[in-house]
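Subject: Sanity check before I submit

Could someone independently write out the structure tokens for this chain? I want to compare against mine line by line before I put it in a report. The sequence has 336 residues.
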Amino acid sequence: MGLITEITPLNKIIKGVDNPEWVNVSSNSLVRIPDNIHHPRVSLFRNYYATQPVCTVSLWEFLTFPGFKNDVVKCRKSKEGKKRDYIKSNLPCITVSGVFDTRDKTKRLQHIHSGYLCIDIDGKDNKHIYGAEWFPVKKRLMKLFNSLAYAGISINGNGLCLIFRIEYPEKHIQHFNALVAEIKERIGLIADESCKGVARLRGASFDAYPCFNFCAKPYFKVKDNIYPDNSRVPLDRTAREQDLIDTKVNRLIEKIRKGKIDITANYKDWYKIGCAFAAEYGKEEGNRKFHLVSMWHPKYYPSECDEQFAKCLQYGSKTTILSFFKICKEHGVTFK
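---
Independent answer below. Compare away.
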């Protein structure tokens, strides 16, 4: 499925879906969106389980759409448990960071970044704040961060959804890390670090008094991945053996570069290559080599590559460089 870039009015799409009870539609808007303002394009998904987008919508329209109110109120009134989870997971969602062709984790993403990212501040991580106490907090955040475009109450009523404008979409993860650190430093709030993925979903919510800054300035600060460089496996090799491995790896990468050969079309192979580089070379050099191999895929995107390598650093320490050699051979890339 290709990218859907044309914006569709939210009312029109919600009226046209197969299930008329998908959401309660209303014609009134919470906030008047200024005329001639830029509308960031984002993909709309039917619910948290969907992997294919319904259409492309305006980020601002989704955040101000009042038709979600009744379901959100039901969610907030329900007790913790299956009922609340069911309501949340079946409400419409968007990918704040842009337009995507899929969210299927077994496929390489094709997307156009919106220039925005989302950060969740959950009540369970900030137990000193509860309920209505979040209202002055979001106003304070708006004053502290001129790059904060939106601050609204989360669907459970005990937390915040923050949307920042960023300067370098290709450094999505690094911007996220920097913002998480600065929010903690300046106001003492703990952000949910599991939400850094570029294709992360933001579910529908309702805030009668959202905070907006349609003229937010881009956030410039970046911070490398916070994961410790603990994935490199100590190898029992002589200096000569290590030099031979390095020579082979560099020679294969050079052949891939000269031939512009994509050996990462298969998602599992791509993951194995990242894990092999993480185990062999660690965070910095491993990530550099991973980009050099990944960049020949037609859907290569630097921030997605960084995100994938971060996973490899965490979980892929058992994979060896032999996996990279094997995948290269399968694609006709050899030492000779």
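---
OP: Matches mine. For the report I'm noting this point. The two ends are 39 Å apart (CA to CA).
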